[in-house]
Design goal:
- This protein has a single domain, classed as Ribbon-helix-helix fold (Orthogonal Bundle).
- Helix content is about 45%, strand content about 15%.
- Strand 1 and strand 2 form a beta hairpin.
- The protein starts with 15 loop residues before the first strand and ends with a helix.
- It has a two-stranded antiparallel sheet.
- The chain is of the alpha+beta class and about 80 residues long.
- The radius of gyration is 14 Å and the shape is globular.
Length: about 80
């Protein structure tokens, strides 16, 4: 049987709430540390601050008929990015 060990860098942690500035107003987002790290990496790859990336995802999610909450949209965007979509 194939070894199914998880990467040593993966830890299971509860969400952490952080404040972000979107379109001139503060809001809070609760994401697990793994997602915060992925968001920081995405922001660095795009040469943008994290708040700017969150604002872009927020803008895009509001264009769909039934937008998810911002936290859910961020997780989906990050996962899609990881998959190369």
């Amino acid at each position: 049987m194939k070894d199914t060990q998880l990467p040593e860098t993966l830890t299971y942690s509860p969400p952490i709430k952080r404040s972000v500035l979107i379109a001139g107003h503060q809001t809070s987002v609760s994401l697990e540390p793994l997602f915060w790290r992925a968001l920081e990496v995405a922001a660095a790859d795009m040469s943008l601050p994290v708040n700017a990336v969150v604002a872009l995802v927020d803008e895009e999610r509001l264009k769909v008929a039934e937008p998810p909450n911002l936290t859910s949209a961020l997780r989906q965007w990050l996962f899609g990015r990881a998959l190369g979509d």
